[in-house]
Amino acid sequence: MVGAVDIGIADTASPERRQQIRDELEWLGFGSFAQGVLAHPTLSCAETMAALQELDAADDTIVMQTQTMEPMTSKPLRLQVRESWHLDELAELYQRFLVKFRPLWNALNAENHLGQEECFIARTLLIHEYRKVQLRDPLLPEELLPTAWEGRYAHQLCRNLYRLLYERAERWLDQHLENAEGPLPAPGPSFYQRFGGLD
Residues in domain Transcriptional repressor PaaX-like central Cas2-like (predicted)? Predict the structure, then answer.
C-alpha cells in the first residue's frame, strides 16, 4: 500500500498489554498483517504517534512507514487486505443492513406517505443501524476494496433514504423538541453537506 503506516508491538510488553494495544489499534482502523504487526493505509505518522500517545502505548510500539512495490490491485495484496481487515465479516454486517432497509426504500418509492414522526423514527433507526457497521469499517481506499463492495451499496442506500426522510423528520423535531434556550436552532451548513449534499 502506498504510504502505509505500520506498527510493531514490542515483545517486551506483556501478552495482555500486547492484546490490549492490538484491540485498540484495530478499533482505529489498523489491520493485522502478521504476528505483532499492524498497518493502516491512510493514517499519517503524526496521527499515528498522537493515537499511540493517547493510548499510552508509545513505549511499547515501533512505528514504520512502508511503501508497496507492486500495483495496488495485485491479487496477493487484495487477499492480504481482505484477511487483515476482516472484510468478509464487515461485508456480512453491511449485507444485513441492506436486507433490513431495502424494503423501506422500496415502500417509499412505491408510496412515500410517512408522516413527520414516522420519518423521524425511520431516520433515527437508519443512522443508528448504519453507524453500528460503519464505525467498524476502516474506510480503506477504493482501490483496495472488492469490486462489488457491500459497504458502497450500504452507503448509497443510507444516503438515498436519508434524503427522502430528513425534511419531514426535521419538521417534527422543530415542533416537538427544544433546548434550555427554547426552540432548537436551525441546522447549520454542515447539516446540508451530509452524504455529499442533501439537495
Answer: 16-73
How many other CB atoms are there within 10 angstroms of residue 119's CB atom? 21
Three-class SS of residue 6?
A: strand
Q: Identify the residue whose cell numbers are 443508528.
A: 128
The 3-state DSSP composition of the chain as helix, strand, coil percent (nearest 5) reads 60, 10, 30
Task: Read off the C-alpha cell for 109.
Answer: 418509492
Alpha-carbon span 168 to 172, nearest angstrom? 6
Average pLDDT, stretch 128-134?
A: 95
Radius of gyration of the chain (CA): 21
Residue 192 DSSP class: G
Distance CA 168, CA 161 (A): 12
What's the pTM value of the predicted model, to 2 decimals? 0.76
Place of cell 476502516: 138
pLDDT digits 0-9 by tens, 148-180:
999 999 999 999 999 999 999 999 988 887 778
Residue type, 55: L
DSSP string, 60-126: GEEEEEE--SS-TT-HHHHHHHHHHTTHHHHHHHHHHHHHHHHHHHHHHHH-----HHHHHHHHHHH
